[in-house]
From TrEMBL:
Acetyl-CoA hydrolase/transferase N-terminal domain ranges (all copies): 191-346
Record-level GO BP terms: acetate metabolic process
GO cellular component, one term: mitochondrion
Keyword Transferase: yes
Source organism (scientific name): Cryptotermes secundus
Record-given protein name: 4-hydroxybutyrate coenzyme A transferase
């Protein structure tokens, strides 16, 4: 059955419910309109059952009685619709109504939310009792909420995020209706997708299905790394979508290599500027958030990065509301009135289980931990076997801190054993600072409702000035290859784009200019590939990109040792790099160094 037939089987109103009514599931399986205030909502089981969300079971009082309402919502063939929707990765049941967070009225299915023509103006209406600005006018009957505290804020004056006010404030007036008001998704739209573990996969699949069914053209899709399928980047959708990836994930790598999608080389710290400068202007943003608390605030959960900047400039925001999304503090809180359409779909957050490091990776971790990481250091590292190996080797350290664009499970173990306390950080003392995170359920449980962790926008976290002010800033990054002059390739394999700049140079440079003169920028890699080729090379492959220049590089670490390249000549640094290459490649590298630099490598 195709999408056109499927969309007629999912739950949607036969007639709009009368004002003041809400849906109720009856014993015969039908959704009936009942007077608002007579229906008790039964909370579904969820991973994160907070006290705030228990308020969803409260009755909603109204001044009018509509007991004689005859309107009905016919559920159609729900089991069949579920089966067919499953192929699109979308959960649809007659108990999971789709509605705006603003006034909780039933809307059409997630498929039709993206394609419905002539949506009623009431679905865009600002919620009654919405708060005005930060100080806010509380909803009648509720206690005034301390907005300035929400999200944990900043300890230091002047360090408040530029996004805090916008994310927390209730919308003071409805969004301006754009030329796309009748079609939420239309040709020549720009769609931003939240990334990493927070990728709203059901919304992405629905967007793809809608665009193909409606034969839309020239839709621009932009995002950092996303999880799940990305069919919009494939050949079959050429002409419908054009993808612009700010950091390449495995799901778009093939499309980019074949020319059906594109990448934007950019430092992670600068991605928000793409929205502020209107280089990318999202018509629609697709995000995933936690359920709202009793004050109407949702959380962006595991991924903040450039999301606040994208949302600030979006015409329409569509959110997957997921009870299993952990609630995090920082720039993550977003008031429900900022969201135009919401889809309640509870599903597991994408997980990345830790892989056991190889013997070479264990040795790299040990070398870095024993020689380059001091007690009281502030750490930045990414995801993968080498960062995990480093973290595993740090359990004997004291007073470590975290200031990193992302972190994973290894941080949890160091907090639990007392190695990470964040007590000697010069900024954000006592806090783990990140911008997005990925890992196992253990990590998500750890960060949920944890005030010792702040997830901040990436133009704050990756600001080189802020990085440079961290105590003993130690930045640990990996790469694909390093040439004998010290050029670091981390984004491509020859001419084939593989990943992106990410935050590597942001932190390498920030650590290099550390205010306390104790920063350590580190590049770590195994000495050989899986096929035995050397990763220390005479020249980078033709077309390979330089992410960290030979002028920025300092420490390079393999399982065979540490090379400190700072202040060294080409002759000296080629010698140092050859000495940490795999022994079987050292002779060939020495000959290549002589041919390139016309002198023999020497200390």
């Amino acid at each position: 059955m195709d999408y056109a037939e499927l969309k007629n089987k999912v739950i949607r109103p036969k007639k709009r419910l009368a004002e003041g009514t809400e849906p109720e599931l009856s014993s015969d399986g039908e959704l009936r309109a009942q007077p608002r205030g007579t229906v008790k909502r039964t909370k579904k089981s969820a991973k994160y059952d907070t006290k705030q969300s228990s308020n969803k079971t409260q009755n909603i009082s109204t001044s009018q009685n509509h007991n004689e309402t005859k309107n009905r919502i016919e559920p159609g063939s729900v089991p069949q619709a579920d089966s067919e929707a499953q192929s699109l990765g979308i959960e649809i049941t007659n108990r999971e109504a789709i509605h705006t967070l603003a006034n909780r009225k039933p809307v059409v299915s997630v498929l039709r939310v993206l394609s419905e023509q002539r949506l009623a103006a009431s679905f865009r209406r600002r919620p009654e009792g919405d708060r005005e600005g930060l100080g806010g006018k509380a909803v009648e009957g509720e206690d005034t909420f301390p907005f300035d505290w929400l999200g944990a804020g900043r300890e230091e004056p002047g360090q408040r995020s530029q996004y805090s006010d916008w994310l927390r404030a209730g919308r003071e007036e409805p969004r301006q209706r754009s030329q796309y008001s009748d079609w939420l998704l239309a040709g020549r739209n720009t769609v931003f997708i939240q990334g990493a573990a927070a990728t709203p996969v059901p919304l992405v699949k629905a967007m793809t299905a809608v665009a193909k069914e409606a034969r839309l053209k020239d839709i621009k899709v932009c995002h950092i790394h996303t999880e799940g399928p990305a069919p919009y980047s494939h050949k079959d959708y050429e002409g419908i979508f054009r993808t612009y990836s700010f950091f390449i994930g495995a799901n778009v790598r093939k499309g980019i290599a074949e020319g059906h999608a594109d990448s934007v080389p950019i430092f992670l710290s600068q991605i928000p500027s793409l929205f502020h400068k209107k280089i990318f202007q999202p018509s629609i943003s697709l995000i995933q958030v936690s359920a709202p608390d009793r004050h109407g605030f949702c959380s962006l959960g595991t991924s903040v990065d450039c999301v606040p900047a994208a949302l600030m400039h979006s015409k329409t925001i569509i959110a997957q509301v997921n009870e299993k999304m952990p609630r995090t503090f920082g720039d993550t809180v977003i008031h429900q009135s900022q969201i135009d359409y919401a889809v309640e779909l509870d599903c597991p957050i994408v997980q990345h289980e830790r892989k056991a490091p190889s013997e070479a990776e264990k040795e790299i971790g040990k070398l870095i931990a024993e020689n380059l990481v001091e007690d009281g250091a502030t750490l930045q590292m990414g995801i993968g076997s080498i960062p995990d190996a480093v973290l595993s080797a740090l359990k004997g350290h004291k007073h470590l801190g975290i200031h990193s664009e992302m972190f994973s499970d290894g941080v949890v173990d160091l907090v639990k054993c007392g190695a990470i306390t964040n007590s000697e950080k010069s900024m954000h003392k006592g806090k783990i600072i990140g911008s997005f995170l990925m890992g196992s359920q253990k990590l998500y449980d750890f960060v949920h409702d944890n005030p010792s962790i702040e997830m901040l926008a990436v133009d704050h976290v990756n600001d080189t000035d802020i990085i440079s002010k961290q105590t003993k800033m130690t930045a640990i990054n990996s790469c694909i290859s390093v040439d004998l002059s010290g050029q670091v390739n981390a984004d491509s394999i020859g001419t084939r784009m593989y990943s992106g700049f990410g935050g590597q140079l942001d932190f390498i440079y920030g650590a290099a200019i550390a205010a306390d003169k104790k920063g350590k920028p580190i590049i770590a890699l195994e000495s050989t590939t899986k096929t035995g080729e050397s990763k220390i090379v005479p020249y980078l492959k033709e077309g390979a990109g330089v992410v960290t220049t030979r002028g920025h590089v300092r420490y390079v670490v393999t399982e065979h040792g540490i090379a400190d390249l700072f202040g060294k000549s080409l002759q000296q640094r080629s010698y140092a790099l050859i000495n940490i290459a795999h022994p079987k490649h050292r002779e060939a590298l020495t000959k290549a160094a002589f041919e390139r630099f016309k002198v023999m490598p020497s200390p």
